[in-house]
Design goal:
The chain is α/β, with parallel strands linked by helices. The chain is 28% helix and 24% strand. It is built from 7 helices and 9 strands; from the N terminus they run αββαββαβααβαβαββ. The structure holds guanosine-5'-triphosphate. Residues 42-48, 62, 64-65, 90-92, 148-149, 151-152, 178-180 line the site of guanosine-5'-triphosphate.
């Protein structure tokens, strides 16, 4: 499944109409697709965050992710319809092994997640950053840091100023949020939409030739490092 998905991602376009020229069918509306991987320790809430953004609600129940789950949502930014594809990865090492190389192919952005009520999940972040480095993730792709479960105020173990220092040291913006309670702190919707805006402006793709039934893409010359300030 991952490899099928990746081959479609290599094109980074999708079409809402797959029968060119069929009567009554409008010309295909192509959307750019952005692959965002969501990584962090098990139980920090990666599934709930991706579900909140794509389904608009907190899931009734979750189980440990095995391998990877995909969720997708189409959004419109400045008149362009783009697809945000979230790869919800397994936090447990035993459920990651077989899939890990797939996560890191053709990635457009990374979301690092920790649980504000679990200091260990915060202290694991350097290991997740190192994993990205080992998989040769380009240093200029957008990365953000998300502290989840802010609704559990009395149980917070990771103070905001500590998390902010870490984020600053790694040139990432920090968001504190709750997948469960959308009114707490930064809104999950706003976090992913902010990322979508950055991707739209910083990762342009252009058609190399007008396609009939095939699309070839090449990235434009890369702009300078994105500024997250
Ligand atoms: N209170 C609270 N609980 C949350 C929140 N987000 C997730 N949870 C709970 O945390 C637990 C783990 O959530 P998941 O989304 O499955 O965690 P995960 O990071 O995907 O875990 P793995 O799949 O094992 O990597 C579940 O019991 C969720 O209900 C949140 O914002 N607030």
């Amino acid at each position: 499944m991952a490899s099928e998905l990746e081959s479609s991602l290599e094109a980074s376009f999708s079409s809402s109409c797959v029968v060119p020229g069929a009567s009554g069918c409008l010309p295909p509306a192509r959307s750019r697709i952005f692959k965002i991987i969501v990584i962090g320790d098990s139980n920090v809430g990666k599934t709930c965050l991706t579900y909140r953004f794509c389904a608009g609600r907190f899931p009734d129940r979750t189980e440990a992710t095995i391998g990877v789950d995909f969720r997708e949502r189409a959004v419109e930014i400045d008149g362009e319809r783009i697809k945000i594809q979230l790869w919800d990865t397994a936090g447990q090492e035993r459920f990651r092994k077989s899939m890990v190389q797939h996560y890191y192919r053709n990635v457009h952005a990374v979301v690092f997640v920790y649980d504000v009520t679990n200091a260990a999940s915060f202290h694991s972040l350097p290991a997740w950053i190192e994993e990205c480095r080992q998989h040769l993730l380009a240093s200029d792709i957008p990365r953000i840091l998300v502290g989840n479960k802010c609704d559990l105020r009395s149980a917070v173990q990771v103070p905001t100023d500590l998390a902010q220092k870490f984020a600053d040291a790694h040139s990432m913006p920090l968001f504190e949020t709750s997948a469960k309670s959308p009114h707490d702190s930064d809104h999950v919707e706003a976090i992913f939409m902010t990322l979508a805006h950055k991707l739209k402006s910083h990762k342009p793709l252009v058609l190399s030739q007008p396609p009939e039934d095939a699309v070839a893409l090449r990235p434009e010359a890369r702009p300078a490092l994105p500024c997250w300030c």
